[in-house]
């Protein structure tokens, strides 16, 4: 199976052939995936070098000319480092574009904390109007990338990761998908957290919702899953900072008695970088740890 990032390069290269409005902006990282596309469309594949603020600035400028820019690099260099440009060159200017990240929260542990971005979605939550997709499989990433490219002038962030679920699920770029139904609580698994959540909740009387589009937050499906009466218990399991979506759960259930447990990446930096699976365990996101935390919460 190819990775989400490999799928991004192949799909976007084809989209450049199909849609003359699209342009790709790179900051050195990922350029090899667009070698052929750059030869075919030299005016619409731009590599600005290791200048991430310029990456977003150029994307904003292209958007002002009527193009649909797709900007790509590691999440820490795409959202965190050039955040001012994201805020001003897109939000303030009132134009749209597509940010496509790689690296996730800790996909490349040996790269160190400079290449980790567990706060990216929370940072975008401070801005208005961003759609955020978090696919859990390359097939899902392709569908969401195609939607993002064709999404008029919307502002879209597509968060790619080397973490992936074994099998894809149908995605529509809007709604959560109900994979299990139960009576003792609701667990919302985001993107690549689905397989660990399914393993952790095996045999438990809980509803499992699968979220690949987290902004806008699908309050309607969550409300339906919690039922109309009684106290609702909700657990969110996200591949970025723990509790990032807690506010949205609270808003969705404002008129109901409820409790929320937000699981995800902790704020504490793990300085012994190790391997990806060690980071998952270190943040309590492996199936064993998730089961203990979920059952402890639901056991009241």
UniProtKB/TrEMBL annotation:
Transketolase-like pyrimidine-binding domain ranges (all copies): 2-168
A Pfam family matched in the record: Transket_pyr
Transmembrane segments: none
SUPFAM superfamilies assigned to the protein according to its UniProt record, in alphabetical order: Thiamin diphosphate-binding fold (THDP-binding) (SSF52518), TK C-terminal domain-like (SSF52922)
Xref: SMART domains: Transket_pyr (SM00861)
InterPro entries hit by this protein: PDH/Transketolase (IPR051157), THDP-binding (IPR029061), Transketo_C/PFOR_II (IPR009014), Transketolase-like_Pyr-bd (IPR005475), Transketolase_C (IPR033248)
Database matches in PANTHER family: PYRUVATE DEHYDROGENASE E1 COMPONENT, TRANSKETOLASE-LIKE PYRIMIDINE-BINDING DOMAIN-CONTAINING PROTEIN
Name this polypeptide is given: Transketolase
High-level lineage: Bacteria, Bacillati, Actinomycetota, Actinomycetes, Kitasatosporales
């Amino acid at each position: 199976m190819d990775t989400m990032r490999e799928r991004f390069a192949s799909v976007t290269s084809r989209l450049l052939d199909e849609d003359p409005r699209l342009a790709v902006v790179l900051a050195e990282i990922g350029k090899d995936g667009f070698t052929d596309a750059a030869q075919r469309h030299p005016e619409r594949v731009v590599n600005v070098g290791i200048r991430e603020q310029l990456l977003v600035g150029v994307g904003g400028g292209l958007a002002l000319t009527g193009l649909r820019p797709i900007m790509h690099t590691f999440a820490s260099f795409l959202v965190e480092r050039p955040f001012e440009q994201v805020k001003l060159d897109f939000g303030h200017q009132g134009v749209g574009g597509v940010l496509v990240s790689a690296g996730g929260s800790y996909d490349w542990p040996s790269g160190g904390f400079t290449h980790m971005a567990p706060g990216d979605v929370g940072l975008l939550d401070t801005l208005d109007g961003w759609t955020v997709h978090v696919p859990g499989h390359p097939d899902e990433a392709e569908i969401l990338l195609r939607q993002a490219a064709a999404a008029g002038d919307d502002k879209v962030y597509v968060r790619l990761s080397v973490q992936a679920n074994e099998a894809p699920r149908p995605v529509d770029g809007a709604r959560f998908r109900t994979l299990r139904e139960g009576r003792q609580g609701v667990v919302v698994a985001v993107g690549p957290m689905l397989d660990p959540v399914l393993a952790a909740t095996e045999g438990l009387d809980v509803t499992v919702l699968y979220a690949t589009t987290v902004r806008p937050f699908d309050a309607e499906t969550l409300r339906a899953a919690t039922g109309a009466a009684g106290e609702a218990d909700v657990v969110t399991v996200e591949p970025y900072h723990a509790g990032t979506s807690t506010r949205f759960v609270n808003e969705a259930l404002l008129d109901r008695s409820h409790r929320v447990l937000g699981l995800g990446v902790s704020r504490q930096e793990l300085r012994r970088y190790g391997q990806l699976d060690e980071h998952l365990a270190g943040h309590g996101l492996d199936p064993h740890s998730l089961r203990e935390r979920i059952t402890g919460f639901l056991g009241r």
